[in-house]
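TODO from last week: model ABC transporter ATP-binding protein.
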Amino acid sequence: MKTLLLKRKWEFIIYMIASCFFIVSDLLIMGLSGYIMDALEQGSMELFMTRIGYGVIIVLIGAGLYLSSRFLRIGYMRKVLLDIRAEAFGTVLKMSPKQFGKVSKENYVSRLTNDVNLIEEKFFISLLNLISGFGMYIIGLIIISCYEPVLAGGLFLVSMICYGVCTLFLKRTQKLQEAVSEGNEALTLNMSNTFNGLEIIKLGNMEDKFLEKNKKEISRAEARKQAFNNYSEIQQNVLIFVGYFVMAGVIFYLGGKIGGGLGFGIAVFLFQLSTQIIFRVMDSLPLVNVMRSSIKIYEKLTCLEVSQEETKSNAFRFDRTIELKDVCFGYEGRKLLDHTNMTLEKGKKYLIKGASGAGKSTLLHLLQMLNEDYTGSIKVDGIDYRTIDERSFNEKVAVIDQDIFLFEDTIRNNINLYRETDETFMQEAIKGAGLESLIAELEKGLETPLLENGKNLSGGQRQRIAIARAIVKDAEILFIDEGTASLNEALGREIEKVFLNLPQTVIAISHRYYEGISEGYDYVLELQAGRLNQYDAKDYFEGVSVC
């Protein structure tokens, strides 16, 4: 956080100066009070009215200082918050798919919205009050020491004792603020699940049940916020309670000094200044804990574990084969892959078959480098998978799932994924994916905007865009997980033909059999009870009837 604040050093200095404008305003008002009391002590109405006139001017100056302070601070604060959002977003984008998948995507949304808002609310407001509070503390002690050094020394000693008390609250404050962040994440996740499943909820007439569930989640989140706010209030009230005792002592001390010759106006000024010092310190010290807990939230946002293992130094190259040797994988005591051995050849087409739960997706995920919790070895052209840089791997592969994700953007940007693409190459991808007729029918062609997740396209059109995406990327391997499962028979056959006509190595999972087309795969990999058997596709499908 320190590095981020000092990124714009001069703007931060201006922010600090602007935060101190309140000190100038408060000192002017306290000085005026002393002068007015001095005029009353002298019994001069003319002097009293003159100083009241000064008061009007000082109030106007104070208003000007407040507006100037806000204007000078707000721009810097917004820039820092933008940096935090960008840094947090960048941290998430750098994560590998398996790291990203450790928590729900709604958790990341909550962090990028609620947690940043929490930093804005808690950190910057606390920073403002801390700067003005300690600025007043230092300036006030200097002024008081010029008049009454003993009083200044006593106030300094009390402030140090209060700081020691405040540190006792730190750990609990951090835990409570982290709990607020977790509560926001849980609430965001619950609301997202409700909205995503709204159709199912309505079909099941479960609106009341889910409303109650959301109410409970909201109550938990608000209870955590209340617990944090209450604990912060306890800190402040403990310190304020101490402050009242200190002020009683200041009154007693200054009362004695008035009897010894100290002017009444000066005594009033010193009393007000002492009050400001003590209560600013009492208000500011808990803010130190709030700021530290906010920094913890910032670290949670920007210091998410991003694996950059030094061993992953090899670039992905696939010129010949991918070999699995004695690969074992399972969970909860169940083996999905048991000493699996196979060799995948470049340019060949492989179809993975097996019963539900046999481990088809698991095998695909291992080949996609999404999981390393296996024993045995997976090598590409003799290079161990575990030593391959994920970024270089992702550059050379493409994935088509049953549910294709499309951005609310043009068809062009959904195909090239915001990268510059040669127009000839783009047209080849459109032709290879069978999108020619769709593009020709659309008035804006490739520049046609898509609705949320491509709602203005059919399932087949969405799949074809995903295929064009893979072609434009010039991927060497295409992983397909039930790529035609959501399509009708006719569309499924057409898309399957496209898959098999691609020059890339294709590794696909499909529970469907398309007579006369599925035989176009080179091999079928069948999983049964953890064992993998490889068959020539034509031999495997011989005699299979259409369901």
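Done. The beta strands are 321-331, 334-345, 349-354, 375-380, 383-384, 397-401, 477-481, 505-509, 523-528, 531-536.
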